Amino acid sequence: MTVAAAAAHRVRGRHEFRGLRTVEHVFRVPLDHGDPDGEHLEVFAREHVAAAHPAASADQLPWLVFLQGGPGGRGNRVTSLGGWMKEAAKDFRVLMLDQRGTGLSSPADRATLPLRGTPAEQAAYLGHFRADSIVLDCEAIRRALGSGPWTVLGQSYGGFCALTYLSLAPQGLRRALITGGLAPLDGAADRVYRATYARVAERNAEYFGWYPEDRAAVTSVVAHLREHDERLPSGERLAPERFQLVGSLLGGNTRVDALHYLLEDAFTRGSAGPRLSDGFLAQVHALVTRAPNPLYAVLHESIYAQGAATEWAAQRVLGEFPAFRADAEEPLLLGEMVMPWYFEQDPALVPLAATAEIIAHRDDWGPLYDPGRLALNSVPAAAAVYRDDIFVDRTLSLETAARVRGLAVWETADFHHDGLADDGEAIFARLLAMADPDGD
User: What keywords would UniProt list here (predicted)?
Assistant: First the structure.
């Protein structure tokens, strides 16, 4: 089994507000856990404890580590206890991790990555930013905090990381809870995109059934963008295919109706000619820029890569689903698909285009999962699988679930990918009970 040495550790600050006590932790971890004497990074994490727990006893609470979605997303910034955290804080100290390269951890973005050298050197550096490294960071942090095996809650990509945790370092886990994040254990990225394109197409049809006028609105916006130079607040032209990325809103119960409000703002009324409104363009920009999380785009397909190159799988598979092309008669909205053109259009990604190209063609990725170990798993684990999830396919999720010994599965059509934000208290409580049916 993989063992990570304890990380060097310091406390950056302590705060109390709105029923929460927080401690800000900074850990020093190896860039490459296989070379502990080499270069190091800082990883930031914020500890949250309900103020209702007396300070003298709070330090005895067991830890729960939240592994957020992504890749490339920082830990949630919370201002009070709500949702799943409200439920978890009854019995746990919650550790909210900024995964390496994100948030207040050592950054990896268009400003810092060029300092690494050539695009090839940048790509080699980012090879240490996948789930295997994140898991070993967690183990180094666990040892630094003096914790025994702890609980992890993985949302979306965080669930992928939880599966890697069960594969590489199960000795560090008391239990694993996963929401919308059961990754395929093997196979090419192509099959992921074939499944997700099909589900996104179904979700488009469902949405346009609710809001039939929005079918014409999307077609009109795409046609307008083909003929007119419309600029986002950051200055670059909005291309039709980039507009289609607002389909990310289709991936949730808590956000899907916001798409209707976005589209009703599309055109400025009363102007001399058809123009997209400033309010619409500002909203679209917030949805389609990767400035806050560039690693999402740079590393997205690599989360499916094991022993083979992804070769821009989403772009290649798009050829099998022409309804998603921007030049289709009635183009569909896209989901979580990262295309090569993204690195030509988003200013946050343009400096990283050559690096992303190298990563797309890398063919020597190591394994992220150990199917043999997962087949013998002894860590209590439970997962929520959302039947109509457009980001993590239900069929592939159930295929994985069947290969993890003892994994309890709750399949539901009541939630989409954002279920944890929709009714986190109930979902967390249910998964915890499933993983611990005897209340241990």
Answer: Hydrolase
